[in-house]
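Hi C.,

You asked whether I'd gotten around to modeling the 417-residue construct. I have! Everything is below, sequence then structure, no commentary in between.
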Amino acid sequence: MNILLKSATIVDKTNSKLHLKKRDILILNGTIEEISTSIKPAGNIKTLKLKNLHVSAGWFDSSVSFGEPGYEERETIKNGITVAARSGYTDIVLNPNTYPLPDSSGAIVFLKNAAKEHPTKLHPLGTLTVLSEGNDLAELYDMQNSGAVGFYDFKRSIANSNLLKIALQYSQDFKGLVCSFPMDKQIMSKGIVNEGISSTRVGLKGIPALAEELQIARDLFILEYTGGCLHIPTISTGKSVRLIGEAKRKGLNISCSVAVHNLLFSDDVLDSFDSNYKVLPPLRTKKDISALIKGLKEGIIDFVTSDHTPIDIEEKRIEFDNAAYGTIGLENAFGILNELFDTETAVTLLSKGRERFGLSPVTIKKGSLANLTLFNPESEFIYTKKHCNSTSKNSMFFGEKMKGKIYGIIANNQIIV
């Protein structure tokens, strides 16, 4: 692939010489050949000039679900990867949320092979335990050797404290990343939304913030005892931020993420009884949202995820109590973050996280493989179903204003625009 990007504003805080500078970028055979104020095309080179074109290091999402294998009607790997590419992502971490679950090296190989020809790279997580049942550790070492970037029983908490201890101890030998969903099932009980004024008003059973915070406190105590690498996905409360901040100040090897919808919506939206607002962890209070945003600014929360979770219409268009958890969000993360923060911060948040999952960082410089996201940060529009390329349409973002247009990506010697 040979292409010349004309008049692209480079957004890269790690490179002061190029950051916010407008440059031409020449890419030959998938490698950045030249970056200059003006480059004249020569030979068989496609020139790409787009309105208010901005370029950054390719974006990364640490929590994405599709459906294949087992739930192809929700989202196939092929369509999901295409949606990710059109949303600006050059790398995604795929959750173990399929049937059968990826709890063996063969399952990891299948997922890697299913996505290897696409521009967006898919990095699968293996389950932490066999069948995600929380009883016995899965084939962690073999799965990592086959390409798994971490281990996670998706949206299932590790109830057995000793199992988490053993997982953290065992995985140190091969620098494996253990992921622990922050939810105490006993305290959660039959709750489905945030416990508070809104849950009382609408008559839905609540999940106390304590259910998340108690699990995190336990996990951090175990991590302090064992050592190892622990990642806590999608935290949602202010106290969770404080607990993780204290652990980081102690020097524990801990990271965490937040779902983009938990930065935008509070539990006030539950008055509509729209099941697209049913997510796990649940939407919390405005006070929690402020604490989460502050945690991002202070670097306590490491990165933002779309927590993209396609769900069949049959599992969403039913009573709120019985509806499945989850919302899609790949296409919305930038538009929301670009509204909540300035563009530089939004891009930084979307570019972070690779190293935590053992992946190489991305740089924009001569001689580097082109791994770029192309976008216009100023374009504004209202997100509707006509903008949704996912097979499933379970989005809580319909009707919301998005700031910024994604043109596409250049990665893996391919271009999607």
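If it helps when you're writing up: The first strand starts at residue 2 and ends at 11.

Thanks,
B.
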